[in-house]
Each structure stands twice: as structure tokens, then as C-alpha cells.
Amino acid sequence: MIPPRFEYFAPSSIDEAVQILDRFGGEAKVLAGGQSLLPVMKLRLAEPRALVDINRIPDLAHIREDAKSLRIGATTRTNDLNDSELIHARYPILSDAAYEIADPLVRNMGTVGGNVSHGDPANDLPACMLALGAHFVVRSPTGTRTIPAKEFYQDTFVTALESNELLLEIQIPKARPGQGNAYVKLEKRIGDFPIVGVAANLVLTTKGTIESAGLALTAVGPTALKATEAERHLVGKAPEDDAFQRAAELAQEITSPVSDLRGPAEYKRAMVRVLALRALHRASARAHGGA
Ligand SMILES: Cc1cc2nc3c(=O)[nH]c(=O)nc-3n(C[C@H](O)[C@H](O)[C@H](O)COP(=O)(O)OP(=O)(O)OC[C@H]3O[C@@H](n4cnc5c(N)ncnc54)[C@H](O)[C@@H]3O)c2cc1C
């Protein structure tokens, strides 16, 4: 299918991009990898008057660690998460998720910024960002602000981004000793959107108890869901099956899956518990230095 007519802009700076977005007052869309936006335009579910292609803006594609954070630029390609030794070694939750997103063609085009900005509850990276306690740095013509991932996802395809704001960078607290994380996804066929996905992040004290926990879910609610009660339950406990079983139950309680081609709601709900257990055990093994 052919998308409706639109004006096309390819700004070479962030300032220029946000000025164009502002000028169109909500009728322009950012174009990053186009892997989500172009399909919805072809189906005429979105009909923006203008596209603002951000691929020519320098310094928006990077993966680097500084004293406090892992910083991922918005136009970093999904496959770059797979190719990064830093990510594999210190933030494996992101390479777990990236490896199972679509296929190499989509991963080479699709961006990390696009994946988290789209607001699709079936996208895999938002749950990882919730579990990791990420912050999103965004710019508008009036300045820059930082939005915690837990405040970013408001409803299906609705995020805290204003129409004149551009996501510049994702900042994730720097990995610490005793930290381990994992993303576990159930899909019908390799490369499919998830039936259910679970992201888990654990930081252990030197005594081996859980100092902090992040647990978030994909595709079982209107947005990616942060399982706050389950996280609270884990803090102070030993990273063992008893604590993980209860956390998985608490995670299951916040879900509201719908029955669709990927499976009945009850099946998805049951799978949340199974996948949460797997993700927590894997995160714990990694926190203890395992693969
Ligand atoms: C066949 C297929 C299978 C897929 N399977 C999966 C899957 O299993 N898991 C998964 O997670 N995803 C999957 N996807 C989606 C894919 O990961 C997309 O690449 C991703 O959702 C969007 O990234 P993008 O760079 O292509 O964004 P675009 O399509 O360019 O943009 C998506 C939305 O985000 C906005 N946006 C993009 N960048 C910014 C920015 N920097 N600031 C503000 N707004 C921005 C756009 O305006 C648009 O509204 C699949 C896609 C396809 C085509």
C-alpha cells in the first residue's frame, strides 16, 4: 500500500529538527528507522503532514559508558546492541532483547530511540528500560528535559513525549558489581513480536541479598508494565526460588492481556509467571558471574 502524501525534511541539527516539529504543531512525525512508522502510514492509521528524518543529525548514534551511566543515542540501530561488546558484557538484558527483535533487516534499520518512543506495548525494549531504571533525554525548542522511563509510558501509543520533542539519548544507571539482568521472550516464531516478554534486573549486596530489583513486562497490558510490588517484595531477600515465585505471582497480578492471534489471555497470564521466574533466575545467575 502507498502512504498518503507528506512533506519530507532532513535536518542536519537537533535545533532545526525540533523547530520543524514545533512549526507543524503535532502534524509532523519524527522518522528514525521507519520500521514502525512507515507500516502504520501505509495502512493509513497515521497520516502526518510532514516527516522529520533525523538520520542526518550527527552524534545521535552512540553507545558509551561514563562515570554514572550507559548512554545510548536515539538513532543507534537495534543491531548495534547485538554488536556491542560493552552491552554483551555489562548490560546483557539489552542484547537478549535486541537479538530477538524481528530479523536482521529490521534490526539494521530500526533504532533504539524509535523502539522506545513508539509506545507499542509489544515492543521489547521499553520493559528493559523500565527494569533498568532508564531516563530519556528529550529536546524541544524551549530546552532539554529528562523523563524517567516509569513516567514515559502513559497508554497504548501514548508517551510523555510532546509533539515538538525529540528523544536524544537514553541514560541507564551504570552497571555495578553484583548486578545481573536478563530479558526472556516467548514468541510464536523467531522474529515475531512477543506473546509475552519479561525483563529482570537484580543488584546484590556483598552479602548476597537483593539490594535493588527491576521487573517489567511486555505485551500484557496497555503499555509495558513495571511490576513495582514484585520489585519491592524482592528487596532484602536472598535471590532464591521462594522470593522469585512470589515476585512472579505479584507480577502476574498487574497484567491485563487480551486474547488475540498470539494466544488466549489466560495463556499469556500464565506465561508471565513462567517467564518472570526464568528471567529472575537468569538475572541472578549473571549477578553471581554466570553466563
Ligand atoms: C516485521 C517487523 C517485525 C518487528 N518485530 C519486532 C519485535 O519483535 N520486537 C520489537 O520490539 N519491535 C519489532 N518491530 C518494530 C521495530 O523494532 C521498529 O524498528 C521499532 O519499533 C521502531 O524503531 P524505528 O527506528 O524504526 O522507528 P520509526 O518507525 O521511525 O518511528 C516509530 C515512532 O517513534 C517516533 N520516533 C522515532 N524516533 C524518535 C525520536 N528520536 N524522538 C521522538 N520520536 C521518535 C516516530 O515519530 C514514530 O512515531 C518489528 C518491525 C517489523 C517491520
Protein model, in words:
The protein is of the alpha+beta class. The chain folds into 3 domains: 7-53, Uridine Diphospho-n-acetylenolpyruvylglucosamine Reductase, domain 2; 63-173, Uridine Diphospho-n-acetylenolpyruvylglucosamine Reductase, domain 3; 179-287, 2-Layer Sandwich (Enolase-like, domain 1), CATH 3.30.390.50. 35% of the residues lie in helices and 25% in strands. It is built from 12 helices and 14 strands. The protein has a 5-stranded antiparallel β-sheet with strand order 4-5-10-6-7. It has a 4-stranded antiparallel β-sheet with strand order 11-12-13-14, sandwiched between helices. Strands 1-3-2 form a 3-stranded parallel β-sheet, with helices on one face. A hairpin with a 2-residue loop joins strand 6 (135-140) and strand 7 (143-148). Helix 10 runs antiparallel to helix 11 and helix 11 (241-253) runs antiparallel to helix 12. The longest helix has 23 residues, at 265-287. The termini are far apart. The chain binds flavin-adenine dinucleotide. Flavin-adenine dinucleotide is lined by residues 29-37, 39, 54, 74, 78, 101-102, 106, 110-111, 113-115, 117-118, 123-125, 161, 166-167, 192-193.
Chain-wise SSE layout:
Blueprint: E1 7-9, H1 14-23, E2 28-31, H2 37-42, E3 50-53, E4 63-65, E5 69-73, H3 78-83, H4 85-90, H5 92-99, H6 104-109, H7 112-117, H8 125-132, E6 135-140, E7 143-148, H9 149-152, E8 153-155, E9 158-159, E10 166-173, E11 179-186, E12 196-204, E13 210-218, E14 225-226, H10 228-234, H11 241-253, H12 265-287
Helix pairs in contact: 10-11, 11-12
The structure holds flavin-adenine dinucleotide.
